[in-house]
Every structure is written in structure tokens, then in C-alpha cells.
Amino acid sequence: MTLLHAVAPDGCSVLRDSVSNRYLVITESGSSISDIMPAQYEYSKLVFSPISAFIGTIKMKLNKYMVVATSHEVTGSILGREIAKVTNFSILLVGVDHSVAARSLEESQYVSLLTQHLNNATLFFSIGNKYDLTNSLQRQLTSSSFSVDSRFWWNSFLSEEVNAVAGSEPFISHMIYGYFKSHSAIFDGISQPIEFALLTRRSIYRAGTRYFRRGVDDNGNVANFNETEQFFTTPNGKEIFSFLQTRGSVPVFWSEINNLKYKPNLVISSKSALDATQKHFDEQVQLYGDNYCVNLVNQSGYEKPVKDSYEAAVENLPPHLKAHVKYIYFDFHHECRKMRWDRVKLLFGHLNQLGYHRNNYFHYDVANKKTILTQSRVVRTNCMDCLDRTNVVQSTLGRWVLQGHFEDCGYINGNQPWETIDPQFNLFFQSFWADNADAVSCAYSGTGALKTDYTRTGKRTKAGALNDLSNSITRYYKNNYRDGARQDSYDLFLGNYRPYRDSIHSPFTDRRTAYTQLLPYFIGTSFIVLLAVLFFPKGSVFDFRNLLIVGLCCAYLLTLLRFVVSNGYQFVNWPKLNKLDYLKSVELVDKDGRLLGVKYAELDQFRSRSKKSK
């Protein structure tokens, strides 16, 4: 533990790096670094305690706060450099609390959002900053000069103030939001332990929740974009392999608008996405080389408009770019029907036909510091959410490539799959990929992934199907009634909304009409009255008076529920800090021009599609 922290009498924070013996002082007005204890605190007898990492500072509307990781768990290592997960944190007020006198409910709601995000996020950092989690292993070992990849530096906004101060490097942690774990084990037939690791890093751009961030933005950033890197290290760390895959939303302007029904309104924008799609693939090809885009959405029914839009966008790419974007359609649900998910392997043949082979990975001789092979192509996988089907395909590709690693090292021949040689090694391989699937899914949908019974065991089971049902119901509830605040927490943490700059009036005020706000209470009251008459009637429940009350309650409830169903947009928990791509609020006024409230509606450039499958 190299960082120590103390709170000064004036409420400011002092951090000390025990390696460089430098001090970082964070005050209301800014931050500074010195080689000696600042004079104003020299005789204050500050009490320092160890912390795991400095996450950053954030200014709300009235106050400034510092966020630190107070505990961590080491989840593995890469090339002997330990990687840790933040397990606890603390949000500390910097200076004087300016919200006490004002009794600011708004300020406390911002702090609550920050707390929510830190509770939900799976943040990882390199102990001692010895490994750059934001960059792939290949980039770190083959580039003469590389910098932190801003796409994956999750706490970059919170680090802005301190990062701008010269000499701040010992205090800055380049954290990622995602997953990391490594495991050392003996593989059957190899006398010494080998190491397997899996890492996923989530992009800060167009980040958010399942139904509030879909598709692409004008800058070419797509929702739910993740890099997943699989590592394999030979005994004694002599050689290391890494294999990189990506996932991301279909890069066109589209969304699914929550309406309280199980299937939201699928919306494709009438605005052309050609420029945005081109920007997306320009960057992807520049970063990864040829992109093999595996599209897993259904070819008919509800998902078909997304498939058609994607194919049209790829077809209309400029020729120089299209040559590097290989589109592969794989109808997952059709090919793997009746729980035959082993048929995902059919995808290998499609990849081979287009020039993507199993030896497309990074291979490095650690002992001699020599690059043996570089990865020059990437498989970019998507389904609707880039979660469940995508997880199955990515884990299968990881298994396929690991077979190549074992064969190249001479550990096995090509006649037998590695998982049949060492089933125990296969168990933790499957466990890693299933845990990774859950981490990515929780970040986007709010629940663990579906279909992880297959990822975890290699089989589709009835218990797994029941678990999927439970997760699907939970997703429905969270996506409709809870995700607005979760999206706000993303936007606050990533600096997409800055209260001190963007908040003139509180964004948390409910501006819907009084009737819309009160309607859920009317429903609840009617339901309670109905239950009271049914279970605690005066006299017989079949008395005329009781039957009349029951009938009136049922009729009233049905009327209210019909209104809710036909006006679903008005009862969804929408984000409050930033506007959505597809939604607008329309002011409602009475005949005298007085404002009654607002209602939510789709923007004009979006159009709803039928929600029923053909």
C-alpha cells in the first residue's frame, strides 16, 4: 500500500505517496503537489491512514468531493503485475459544507447518484500502476510510445483536476470498468503450471444502460462497446499469448423506447447514419485492422429492422473502408434452436471463408523480448444488447483460439479438443467466461447474463432456462422503473453532466401533470380497498353492498390500468440529467395558457415499428 490519506483541520485532504514521498493537497480551489509536507499542515499532527487508490475529485452544484478506494481485492496478475478490484470506497467532502445552510436536497441527490454508481461499478486498477489496463498487451509490447487509451479510462473525468498538476503520476490510477481474473493451474500433460486470464474493458463513450443507450452517436461511438482480452501464459512466464475481441451496438441510429410493455417500441431513425457508421468503422479499422462483424440478431420478426439497417449501412461504406469490414450474418436462434448451442462452432467456417483463421492472435517471447506473432484482425460481435448471444459466441471463439495456443506450444495435437484432455481446466475457463458475461451484463442491463448455464457448463439446462426467466423479469422491472437513475449516475460520473455548470434549476423535479403523478397512488388505494372488501368484508362478501364496491373498484382499476398501458411513456423512469436521443418533453397548457405539466413523446426523426414478431 503506497498511498496514505489524512483529513486536515480545514476539511481539505492530504495524500502521501510513500514511494516518492510526495504530497498531494486537495482543497476547494484546486490541487497541488509538493515534496514536503505543506507548511499550513506541518504542525497539525495529521493522522494518515492507508487507502487502496485515489479515484478522483468531483464538483457537484455546491460542494467538491474526493473519492478514494478504501479496500481492494487482488484478482490476478499479468506478467507478474498485480491487478485489483475496488471492493470499498469513501466519498469525502473537501472543505466546508456549503449545502448545510441551504439544506440542498439537489446536492444530496447528486451524491446519492455518485454512490449508486460506485456501488454498481466493477472497477479494476493496477497496483503501483505497473500495468496499463486501458491498453491491450500487444499495444504495450509492440509500440515504442503509447499513452493511456482514453476510451477505457473510466475515472478520467474525476482525475482531470489532479492529472493537470505536474508530478501527479504517483497518485493517478487508470481504472477500467469491466472484469479481470487470472488463474494458475497445472494442465494435464504439462508438469509446470500455466496461467489463464480474462479481461474486459468498457468504453466511456456512449456509456449507459440497456434501453437508454443504443446504436451510434454522431461521432461514431456505439453503446455498450467493450474490448475483451484473453491471456495464456506458458510455464515460468516464458511466453504469453493474448487474443482480443470487441462487442458493440449496431452502429446505426436506433433505439428501443420503454413503454411498460415487455417488448419496447423498436425505433429506427429517419436520419441517415452513413457518416456516423463510417466514423465508427474508420476508428475500428485503424485500431484493430480488418473487422469481422458477426451479427447475431434475428432475421425475421421484431429484430429484423435492426438487421436490415446494419446491412444497408455496411453496404454503403466507402469502397476503401468496406474492403476492411467483413460482414457475417449468423442467425443464432435459428442455428442453435432446440438448445443445440454447440452449433455456434459453425461460425468458424464462415470466418475461415472470409480469411479469418485461428492463428490471429498476439504471441510474445517474454524471455527473449521478441514478438512472434501479432493480431491484425478482430471479430466484432453483436446481438441486440451485445450481451447474451454475444457472450456465447465470444467464449466459443476464445475456446477455439486457446486450442491453437496449446497446439502451437506442442502441448496437444490437433486431433483432440483441449477441454476433453483436462476437464478441470475447462471448468475454470467456463467459469471465467460466465463471470465475465455477468459483469458486462450487470453494467448494461442491471442483471446477470442469460444463457450462462451454457457458458459455465457447456450445456443448456432447464435450471438455466428458469434462471434466465428470473433475470428477464428483473430486467423488465429495472429497465422500466429504475434505470433512469442508473443512467444519470453514469452521466454524472463520466462528466457528461456537470452540476456546477449545467444545473440552473433542479433536474430532479417531476414536471409531469398532477394526475399522472398521482395515478399510481389511485391504483394502489383502489387495490387496497378491493382487498379489504374481499378479505375483511362487513357481513358476507356476496352482500349487494360489498359486490357493488368490488365491481366499482375493479372497473376503476381497469380504467386506470388501461390509461397506464396506453400512455406507457409517461410512467417510465426516464433519466433526468441529459436528454435522450429519441425522446422529447411536450408542455401541456390549459385554455388559459397555464402550464399543467409535460408529457413524453418520440422525436420526429424517429418512428415506431410494430412490436409483434411476424
Describe the overall structure.
The protein is an alpha+beta fold and 614 residues long. It is 34% helix and 24% strand. The chain contains 18 helices and 23 strands. Helix 2 crosses helix 15 (483-493), helix 10 packs antiparallel against helix 12 and helix 17 runs antiparallel to helix 18. The model is unreliable at 610-614 (pLDDT under 50).
Number of helices: 18
Give helix % range.
25-40%
Strand content: 15-25%
In whole angstroms, how far apart are the ends? 59 Å
Please outline the major beta sheet: 13 strands, mixed
Low-confidence stretches: 610-614
Rounded radius of gyration (Å): 27 Å
The geometry reads as globular
- How many strand elements? 23
The residue-averaged pLDDT reads: 93
Structural class: alpha+beta
Give me some keywords for this one.
614 residues, alpha+beta, 18 helices, five-stranded antiparallel sheet, 24% strand, 13-stranded mixed sheet, disordered C terminus, 23 strands
Summary of the model, kept short:
This protein is 34% helix and 24% strand. With 614 residues, the chain is α+β, with helices and mostly antiparallel strands.
Q: Layout of helices and strands, plus pairs?
A:
Blueprint: E1 3-7, E2 13-17, E3 22-26, E4 31-34, E5 49-51, E6 53-59, E7 64-78, E8 81-94, H1 99-102, H2 105-120, E9 123-126, H3 137-142, H4 156-163, E10 176-185, E11 194-202, E12 226-233, E13 239-247, E14 254-257, E15 265-269, H5 274-288, E16 290-295, H6 304-315, H7 319-322, E17 325-329, H8 332-335, H9 346-353, E18 362-365, E19 370-373, E20 377-382, H10 388-408, H11 418-421, H12 423-444, H13 452-457, H14 462-481, H15 483-493, H16 499-502, H17 514-535, H18 544-566, E21 583-589, E22 595-602, E23 606-608
